[in-house]
Design brief:
Distance between the termini: 50 Å
Order of helices and strands: HHHHHHHH
Structural class: mainly alpha
Largest sheet: none
Radius of gyration: 19 Å
Number of strands: 0
Shape: globular
Helix content: over 70%
Length: 219
Amino acid sequence: MTVPDLPAVGLRWTARLAILVLLAIGAASVWHWRAALDPTTITAAIGRYPAAPFAFLAVHIVASLLFIPRTLLAIVAGLLFGVGWGVAWAATGSIAGAVAGFLVARFVNSDLVDLRRLGPVVGTVERGGWRAVAVLRLIPVIPHSLANYALGLTQLPLAPYALGSLLGQLPLTIAYVDLGAGGQRLMLGSANWFEPTLIGLAALSLSLLIPAIARRRVR
């Protein structure tokens, strides 16, 4: 029988507790200053940096950990980078944030709680792999950060989780980036704001229709 390394165990528990405390403080701070979290303010803050894409990715990862809606960051990406690069950076940031939340939850839990005992839904998600994750991501009412942490508590491997997150998040990402790009062109007085706005609305409608169609097929 192996004897547990008590100092190492204590260090792991201290690290887990510290992460939870930092996340709680960060989430409370975000809630307190939520009025300042509007797309134009965030765009002005990030746009000052020469390495704006990397600053955007860093902000996106932190935002994903602190329950800031990713739709807000997708609009910021459209305002900052336009349609093409906006979708690329927003999708990258969304996946980076999703993976960060997934790994944080997995580290903090570390087999402490077996969610499979709590109901059949967890087992269904684990068996469904990336497809189940993609369908879950297509449901717009499920908060991005909450899904990240919840899926991190399951036994899903990281690769299927990341793939399903990318595919499931893409329609809403495209929608809000296009809406942000349309808003940017409108604010600048450009005449070609209607096309990205129309694409954004179409992608948003599609993202709302797909879960309804999927539920009907399952029934």
